[in-house]
Automatic annotation (TrEMBL):
Keywords: DNA-binding, Transcription, Transcription regulation
Presence of keyword Transcription: yes
Organism, scientific name: Chryseobacterium luteum
Family matches, as PANTHER family: REGULATORY PROTEIN PCHR
Coiled-coil intervals, chain numbering: none
Cited Pfam families: HTH_18
Residue span, HTH araC/xylS-type domain: 191-289
GO MF annotations in UniProt: DNA-binding transcription factor activity; sequence-specific DNA binding
Identification of the protein by name: HTH araC/xylS-type domain-containing protein
InterPro entries reported in the protein's UniProt record: Homeodomain-like_sf, HTH_AraC, HTH_AraC-typ_CS, PchR_regulatory_protein, Tscrpt_reg_AraC-type_HTH
Length: 289
């Protein structure tokens, strides 16, 4: 494959492979080739914007936004091509899990519900959750992906860590899928607003912006959201941002300014103020112990 990633293979066992691809400055017209093994599930997390994908076993070309993902089953070995618009950076994490591992994990013979879950996975019903648009990672998914990328231990401890995180990712995907189905049956303003926040909290959005962007009356948003989730919209946004910041702060390679921007704060001082209010110490003090 041309232009191999700087990171490459992060983990490999009999049943699981984790690969990180990073290409900061793709050559013009260059494409990355992603291989899916026979009888395997691929979890693909897109970590940079505007990535196009074309698979040889699918007639459709996909366009992925940053923080979108798919869970795809491939019955035979296949190859997909990925490239970025306007020679932008290409960054994604691919987790390959063989069929037998998933079969043993879900144990479809134990219950009808488990059998349906495996059937949904094989039929690729978990790829498109929102009107044939790849779903966005939730906050917890993003945290797990970052943990998988940065984990440094090896051997049995790493294997146990990876398997635990993959199980958690699958649980979150199933929950997201079921939540989508529930929303279709019982659509509500509070759910729509929560979904919007979950997908956009890292941007510089304010509570008043949500009404404009979703087309829902602001007063109605505030009232129904608090009634459903027992917290205000502003508090929920802050909770998500602080959860993400707390996870990122332990990585000394990431500047405080970068964390602030990644958590949706335009100014570092606003981020520092919110962080100190939440945890009682400044980001710098918590990082330095």
């Amino acid at each position: 494959m041309k232009n191999l990633s700087k990171n490459g293979l992060l983990f490999s066992s009999e049943h699981i492979k984790i690969m990180m691809q990073t290409e900061e400055q793709p050559e013009k017209f260059s494409r990355l080739h992603m291989i899916e093994s026979r009888a395997s599930f691929s979890l693909l997390f897109l970590l940079s914007p505007n990535i196009r994908l074309e698979s040889n076993d699918c007639e459709t070309k996909f366009l992925f936004r940053k923080n979108q993902y798919i869970l795809h089953y491939s019955s035979s070995e296949s190859t997909a091509e990925l490239w970025a618009e306007n020679q932008e950076a290409i960054k994604y994490l691919q987790i390959q899990i063989n069929y037998q591992y998933i079969f043993n994990l879900i144990d479809p013979e134990s219950s009808r519900e488990n059998a349906e879950i495996l059937e949904n996975m094989i039929r690729n019903n978990y790829i498109f959750l929102h009107k044939k648009t790849p779903p966005y990672m939730t906050v917890e998914m993003q945290m797990i992906v970052k943990e998988l990328i940065s984990y440094s231990k090896k051997g049995m401890v790493q294997r146990l860590f990876v398997e635990a995180k993959i199980i958690k990712l699958l649980i979150l995907i199933f929950e997201q899928f079921n939540e989508k189905n529930k929303a279709q049956q019982e659509p509500g303003i509070s759910f729509a607003v929560k979904k919007f926040i979950d997908e956009n909290y890292h941007k510089n959005i304010r509570a008043e912006d949500i009404g404009k962007l979703t087309g829902i009356n602001q007063n109605k948003i505030r009232k129904e959201f608090k009634s459903q989730y027992n917290m205000t919209v502003i508090n929920y946004i802050s909770e998500l941002r602080m959860l993400k910041a707390r996870k990122m702060i332990i990585d000394r390679d990431i500047m405080i300014k970068e964390i602030a921007i990644d958590c949706g704060y335009e100014y570092v001082q606003n981020f520092t103020r919110a962080f100190k209010k939440k945890f009682g110490v400044s980001p710098e003090k918590l990082r330095n112990g």
